[in-house]
Amino acid sequence: MQLTVWTYEGPPHIGAMRVATAMTGLHYILHAPQGDTYADLLFTMIERRGQRPPVTYTTFEARDLGSDTAEIFKRAARDAVERFRPEAIIVGASCTAELIQDDPGGLARTLGLDVPVIPLELPSYSKKENWGASETFYRLVRGLARPSLRQKKSGGARPVCNILGPTALGFRHRDDVREITGLLAHCGVDVNIVAPLGATPSDLQFLPAADFNVVLYPEIAEAAARHLEKEFGQPYTRAIPIGVGATQDFVAEVCELAGIPMPDLSGYMSNLPWWSRSVDSNYLTGKRVFVFGDATHAIAAARVASEELAFTVVGLGTYSREFARPVREAATDYGIEALITDDYLEVEAAITALQPELILGTQMERHIAKRLGIPCAVISAPVHVQDFPARYAPQMGFEGANVLFDTWVHPLLMGLEEHLLGMFREDFEFHDEAGASHLGSHAAMPEEAPVATTESATPSLVWTHDAENELKKIPFFVRGKARRNTEAFARDQLLDTVTLDTLYDAKARYGR
């Protein structure tokens, strides 16, 4: 077992909590030891929710292990149903409680409760958070959707869809739902149910009444959507509307499923295409970007970066092992090999070796970027409190494309501003050792980042003092590229030391 400081996903019962917290009238009975209530902080402190998650913990103690922990669970379940009067309950065990094998589902069924009971089997030692959310939502849909409530549409009625996938603690899920609901209305499509976010267990009964399903987050909703397609003949969307091109693809797919003509989008377009072609953005062309996150956001971000901002994608990866195949397929389009890992140290090593000029990642990559002095924008969970803004900031739809442009390009524009400040580095207020202000007061500059070492790594070159000083005259946001080019030139010339002449000769070669 590998010890870690950070983790991209929590255990699967956290995923179940995200579904329960997103819904109304659903309660989660979690068989867990004292101390596992730490998960409440994810929602109340990071997402800044006004109420704690609808979860009852059994909170058994070490001394209880010698007695009947099953009775503790049954008592907690009865008390929770009596106190909260939920429409339905889900029951399961945390990773620690899983070891004592009390079978919460079986125990709950013996209680004769007057609400539907959905048992969860969430293997904590082989699966993780997103899978847990997906399995929980699938079990709820499978247990509560009713075929008898599927209605035939009368002639001339507007098409109807469900929006599936948004949860609590999701990256901009609240704003994405608002944006996509408006876009669907513009297309002439009504929304039947949004789930899990904002839905009740009784709402899930009416899912079959829709004509088709819109899947916004496949990690959460694809399993449920496949079930609805198989059982009720409801097709579902595959296009994820992140970026201008993908949003246009999404609208086309929705219109095809709904059997309606494409709407006029001329008044509904994003500013991103014009801004990305403007003079101010020309210097961004070819910027090397590293992308990492959940599969949905990573694939979408790579497409936007490459096709809509003219960046060069030099790294693409995900921690979502269940969706490794589509990420690998996307990476081949950029001529690179996908990085599939949930070890942040592997991600850091890849970033250090590639030295990109922009990182699009998670809260973890934000920390890595600060240490390496590289601009970064967060595109995916896991996230921190600053990624739940009070303002409207979707990632999806045409307005979402505007948010992407602002979020991704501004760190690079700040880099240009830092260059201007660098012109005055001899002034008492500015000095090169201070680092870039927008990356943290003690951030190392890109060229100072340690190079990842492996057994097969190329031996590092020695830079003379004069060469290092000359390198510092180059704007810091392209200094890493200058260093890489110079070292590549030196190795081609079989040199082991980079001198001032080597730097000038490399500049002459690459400047042609």
Q: What is the number of helical segments per DSSP (H or I, 4+ residues)?
A: 19
Q: Which segments are poorly predicted (pLDDT under 50) over 5 or more consecutive residues?
A: 419-424, 441-457
The main sheet comes to: 5 strands, parallel
Averaging pLDDT over every residue, what do you get?
A: 86
Shape: globular
How would you write the strand order of the largest sheet? 10-9-8-11-12
Strand content: 5-15%
Oligomeric state of shown chains: single chain
Keywords:
512 residues; alpha/beta; Rossmann fold; 4 domains; four-stranded parallel beta sheet; 19 helices; globular
List the helices and strands and how they pair.
Blueprint: H1 12-22, E1 26-31, H2 40-46, E2 55-57, H3 69-84, E3 88-93, H4 95-98, H5 104-109, E4 117-119, H6 129-144, E5 160-164, H7 173-187, E6 190-195, H8 201-204, E7 212-215, H9 218-232, H10 244-258, H11 272-277, E8 288-293, H12 295-308, E9 312-318, H13 324-333, E10 339-340, H14 344-354, E11 358-361, H15 363-372, E12 376-378, H16 397-422, E13 462-463, H17 465-471, H18 476-492, E14 497-498, H19 500-510
Parallel strand pairs: 1-2, 1-3, 3-4, 5-6, 5-7, 8-9, 8-11, 9-10, 11-12, 13-14
Helix pairs in contact: 1-6, 6-9, 7-16, 12-13, 14-15, 17-19, 18-19
Describe the structure.
This protein has helices at 12-22, 40-46, 69-84, 95-98, 104-109, 129-144, 173-187, 201-204, 218-232, 244-258, 272-277, 295-308, 324-333, 344-354, 363-372, 397-422, 465-471, 476-492, 500-510, and strands at 26-31, 55-57, 88-93, 117-119, 160-164, 190-195, 212-215, 288-293, 312-318, 339-340, 358-361, 376-378, 462-463, 497-498. β8, α12 and β9 form a beta-alpha-beta unit. Strands 10-9-8-11-12 form a 5-stranded parallel β-sheet, sandwiched between helices. It has 512 residues and is an alpha/beta fold. It is built from 19 helices and 14 strands. The chain folds into 4 domains: 12-128, Rossmann fold (3-Layer(aba) Sandwich), CATH 3.40.50; 147-258, Rossmann fold (3-Layer(aba) Sandwich), CATH 3.40.50.1980; 272-422, Rossmann fold (3-Layer(aba) Sandwich), CATH 3.40.50; 458-510, Helicase, Ruva Protein, domain 3 (Orthogonal Bundle), CATH 1.10.8.550.
